[in-house]
């Protein structure tokens, strides 16, 4: 999962480039600040509902929803022609971080053992930061006059088949959440449930062994 999130970071441009696009579309400096404030307001307002939803639905589903908001934000900015459209698009784009930031961290926490939580989260943040830095560099080089090309290219990739690796990961994961497994253990039919969960635990152990072999996780 960490590898997929890192690949996704390579097309997740810094917000500064999105604001540059807003300014190029005709927004004044004050209007750009207002649009960015609206984005942050949406991000903050939607984060709690998105996190609560991920406790009820598979986190892969909520994360995939966030990637749809990402595509809407990038494609919207690529093809926007009027000032008011920028406010609408950035408000939608706030849903991307709301559905992926905290949810992604919680998702990672269900895939590693308790003693490796800090290592996994730190590794994820480090690789994501490197990916965003690389994305900012190459997007800046490809920006040209208005930035439409990089925005449209990767916004379209995020919504179109074949799916982006992170979307594929979000839709293909089948491992039950830790909270779900804990609830099943307390159920009267826990013995049979443990037997059914055995393949998932074995697959999880194999993934952990591969991470340890690569030096990405310390037991």
Structure description:
Helix content is 77%, strand content 0%. By secondary structure, it is an all-alpha fold.
Summarize the structure.
The chain has helices at residues 2-9, 15-24, 29-54, 59-79, 83-109, 117-141, 148-159, 165-172, 178-185, 190-213.
Question: Secondary-structure blueprint of this entry?
Answer:
Elements: H1 2-9, H2 15-24, H3 29-54, H4 59-79, H5 83-109, H6 117-141, H7 148-159, H8 165-172, H9 178-185, H10 190-213
Helix pairs in contact: 1-6, 3-5, 4-5, 4-7, 4-8
Largest sheet: none
State the end-to-end CA separation.
18 Å
Indicate the proportion of strand residues.
under 5%
In the CATH hierarchy, the architecture of the largest domain is: Up-down Bundle
What count of structural domains? 2
Alpha-beta classification: mainly alpha
- Helix share, percent: over 70%
CATH level-3 fold name of the largest domain: Growth Hormone, Chain: A
Annotation field: number of helices: 10
Going by CATH, the homologous superfamily of the largest domain would be MFS general substrate transporter like domains
> Which stretches are poorly predicted, pLDDT < 50 over at least 5 residues?
161-177
CATH class of the largest domain: Mainly Alpha
Quote the average pLDDT.
Answer: 77
Q: What are the secondary-structure elements, in order, as H or E? A: HHHHHHHHHH
Shape: elongated
Radius of gyration: 19 Å
E-strand count? 0
């Amino acid at each position: 999962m960490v590898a997929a999130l890192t690949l996704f970071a390579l097309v997740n441009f810094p917000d500064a480039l999105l604001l540059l696009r807003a300014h190029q579309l005709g927004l004044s400096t004050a209007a750009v600040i207002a649009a960015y404030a609206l984005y942050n307001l949406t991000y903050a307002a939607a984060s709690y509902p998105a996190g609560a939803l991920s406790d009820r639905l598979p986190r892969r589903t909520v994360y995939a929803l966030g990637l749809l908001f990402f595509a809407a934000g990038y494609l919207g900015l690529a093809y926007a022609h009027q000032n008011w459209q920028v406010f609408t698009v950035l408000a939608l784009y706030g849903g991307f971080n709301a559905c992926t930031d905290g949810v992604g961290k919680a998702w990672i926490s269900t895939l590693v053992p308790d003693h490796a939580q800090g290592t996994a989260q730190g590794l994820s943040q480090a690789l994501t930061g490197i990916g965003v830095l690389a994305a900012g560099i190459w997007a800046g080089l490809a920006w040209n006059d208005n930035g439409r090309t990089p925005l449209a290219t990767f916004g379209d990739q995020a919504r179109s088949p074949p799916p982006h690796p992170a979307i594929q990961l979000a839709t293909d994961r089948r491992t039950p959440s830790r909270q779900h497994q804990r609830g099943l253990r307390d159920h009267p039919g826990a013995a049979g449930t443990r037997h059914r969960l055995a393949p998932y635990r074995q697959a999880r152990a194999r993934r952990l062994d591969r991470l340890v072999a690569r030096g990405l996780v310390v037991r």
